[in-house]
């Protein structure tokens, strides 16, 4: 990777996620590393390194794979997704122009919070309503489904499918399943609003923003690799 692109990546991560994420990313700039090597010679506690990795994974800015022994994971920066952060405002404007303000709010939520199940996503958007009386969840649900059908949201995994037998989770979704609509229990979501308790709903299917789809807006930004 060129030094200028590496510097840009660190600036982006520092501004959006803080110095701890930047420090961990700096260790990953020139190749994948397991947690043990990330923690070596870094001015952070182990819990802080893990939290930084969690943030990067939630936002699809790091991928991970098994090491040769199959017992630990190696983490690798996803450079293009980090560079895409520079286009967030453009993507939001284009989303609103094409799909409306609710779609913009949904995309912004996932940009801010990272991956999410659809049930909690709908509830978070609903709670942004100026009036909390008689909230109609159907337009939010319909917009989420529309974004999934259009490919802007994609299924990451079903948490229930992850085996406890493996030290490193194998996150894989068949291509045909990525655009499947999730099952949404609207009655239960209204109960969550009524009781102000999101934990009443259990939803194990996780969705993320599909940056490949967003890049078609403007051709995307790519980080030169050397």
Automatic annotation (TrEMBL):
Which Pfam families does the record associate with it? HTH_9
Domain RNA polymerase III subunit RPC82-related helix-turn-helix as annotated: residue spans:
8-66
Q: Output the superkingdom of the source species.
A: Eukaryota
Q: Please indicate if the UniProt record lists Transcription as a keyword.
A: yes
Does Aminoacyl-tRNA synthetase count among this protein's keywords? no
GO molecular function annotation? single-stranded DNA binding
Subcellular localization is given as: Nucleus
Q: Which UniProt keywords apply?
A: DNA-directed RNA polymerase, Nucleus, Transcription
> Could you give one GO CC term from the UniProt record?
RNA polymerase III complex
Coiled-coil region(s): none
Assigned protein family: Belongs to the eukaryotic RPC3/POLR3C RNA polymerase subunit family.
The entry's function note states: DNA-dependent RNA polymerase catalyzes the transcription of DNA into RNA using the four ribonucleoside triphosphates as substrates. Specific core component of RNA polymerase III which synthesizes small RNAs, such as 5S rRNA and tRNAs.
What is the annotated quaternary arrangement, including any partners?
Component of the RNA polymerase III (Pol III) complex consisting of 17 subunits.
* Name of the molecule in the record: DNA-directed RNA polymerase III subunit RPC3
**What is the originating organism of this protein?**
Diaphorina citri (Asian citrus psyllid)
| Gene name tied to this protein | LOC103511820
């Amino acid at each position: 990777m060129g030094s200028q692109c590496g510097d840009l990546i660190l600036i982006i991560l520092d501004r959006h996620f803080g110095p701890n994420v930047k420090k961990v990313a700096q260790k990953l700039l020139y190749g994948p590393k397991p947690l043990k090597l990330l923690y070596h010679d870094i001015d952070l506690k182990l819990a802080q390194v893990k939290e930084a990795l969690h943030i990067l994974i939630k936002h699809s800015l790091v991928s991970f794979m098994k090491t040769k022994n199959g017992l630990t994971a190696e983490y690798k920066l996803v450079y293009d997704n980090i560079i895409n952060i520079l286009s967030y405002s453009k993507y939001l404007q284009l989303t609103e122009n094409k799909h409306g303000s609710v779609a913009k709010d949904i995309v912004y939520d996932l940009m801010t919070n990272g991956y999410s199940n659809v049930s909690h996503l709908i509830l978070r958007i609903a709670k942004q309503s100026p009036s909390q009386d008689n909230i109609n969840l159907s337009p939010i649900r319909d917009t989420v489904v529309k974004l999934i059908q259009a490919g802007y949201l994609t299924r990451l995994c079903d948490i229930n499918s992850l085996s406890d037998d493996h030290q490193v989770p194998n996150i894989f979704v068949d291509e045909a399943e990525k655009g499947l609509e999730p099952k949404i229990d609207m009655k239960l979501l209204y109960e969550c609003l009524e009781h102000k308790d999101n934990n009443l709903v259990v939803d194990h299917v996780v969705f993320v923003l599909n940056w490949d789809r967003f890049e078609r807006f403007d051709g995307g930004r790519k980080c030169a690799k050397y």
